[in-house]
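Milestone 3.1: sequence recovery, worked example.
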């Protein structure tokens, strides 16, 4: 009786079928394929997780991503500057925090846009940024003079645009009426052709004026950025200037650090000279380590790139030592 019951129980044990084995193999292949496709994302997430929970334990590998040659700096010189920014953090704490690799996870991108274009335009005006009250006063006078010229040119431009639109609408209305009725004499055709040529010429001249105004806006906004930064750096009790036209943003960020599943990236948008480039790179390296902004205006991790020192302040050193557990 017991043996029969045992046989019955043994007979009821499920045996994997060929179909189950097939789906198990498919599932395993799917996992391997997904791992291969998303290997970079998984590697980035893993490395960032380690950095978050064990900061400074392994060096952050970096490489060059997008590199715009319009900045007028070679890759070799740029990497030399990056190394200087790296040393700013490593020497005071005696740790290898960063290292260059061709396939490094932290991509450093040099992006040329309106910010660097504005900086170049400011240099073309003969303006060299200095961190002094006398320079602030001099730049303020330049700004007020250029702004007055801009306002006059803007009024003239808007007046011409208004007159142009009025004549253009009248021309299009008359042409539309002729197209509907098919009635127009030779004198009317001649007059309309003259008007058409005038409108084309005026449109071309207005485009030139528009470009000129846009250039003035870029120059003015660059001065606004410098004036506001200087006022903050020098702790001046003065009004804050607002950007006009093409708004460049409140902070006019020279650099940006971003992190996510796709990896870590540093974007450099603007620098006036090598010293400023070293500082903005060092600042973004600090964010890559996990540091936040400091309230010390001379610190590398201050929110504005106002200083000239290429070394950590005592507040920077305290922050990075706390982060790294030193």
């Amino acid at each position: 009786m017991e043996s029969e019951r045992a046989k019955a129980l043994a007979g009821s044990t499920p045996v994997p079928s060929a179909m189950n084995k097939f789906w198990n193999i498919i599932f395993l292949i799917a996992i391997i394929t997904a791992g291969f496709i998303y290997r970079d994302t998984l590697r980035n997430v893993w490395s960032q997780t380690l950095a978050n929970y064990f900061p400074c334990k392994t060096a952050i590998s970096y490489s060059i991503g997008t590199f715009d040659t319009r900045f007028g700096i070679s890759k070799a010189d740029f990497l030399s500057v990056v190394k200087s920014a790296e040393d700013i953090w490593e020497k005071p704490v005696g740790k290898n925090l960063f290292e260059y690799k061709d396939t490094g996870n932290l991509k450093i991108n040099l992006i040329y846009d309106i910010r660097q274009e504005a900086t170049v335009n400011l240099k073309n005006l003969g303006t060299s940024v200095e961190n002094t009250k006398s320079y602030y006063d001099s730049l303020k006078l330049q700004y007020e003079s250029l702004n007055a010229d801009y306002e006059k040119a803007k009024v003239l431009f808007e007046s011409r645009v208004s007159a142009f639109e009025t004549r253009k609408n009248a021309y299009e209305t008359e042409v539309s009426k002729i197209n509907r009725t098919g009635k127009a004499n030779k004198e009317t055709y001649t007059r309309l052709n003259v008007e058409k040529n005038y409108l084309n010429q005026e449109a071309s001249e207005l485009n030139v004026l528009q470009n000129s105004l846009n250039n003035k806006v870029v120059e003015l906004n660059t001065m606004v950025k410098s004036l506001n930064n200087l006022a903050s750096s020098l702790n001046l009790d003065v009004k804050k200037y607002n950007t006009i036209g093409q708004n460049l943003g409140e902070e006019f960020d020279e650099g940006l650090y971003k992190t996510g599943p796709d990896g870590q990236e540093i974007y450099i948008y603007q620098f006036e000279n090598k010293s400023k480039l070293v500082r903005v790179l060092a600042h973004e390296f600090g964010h890559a380590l996990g540091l936040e902004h400091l309230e010390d205006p001379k610190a590398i991790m201050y929110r504005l790139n106002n200083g000239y020192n290429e070394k950590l302040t005592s507040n920077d050193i305290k922050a990075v030592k706390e982060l790294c557990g030193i």
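The chain has a mean pLDDT of 82. DSSP finds nine helices and five strands in the chain.
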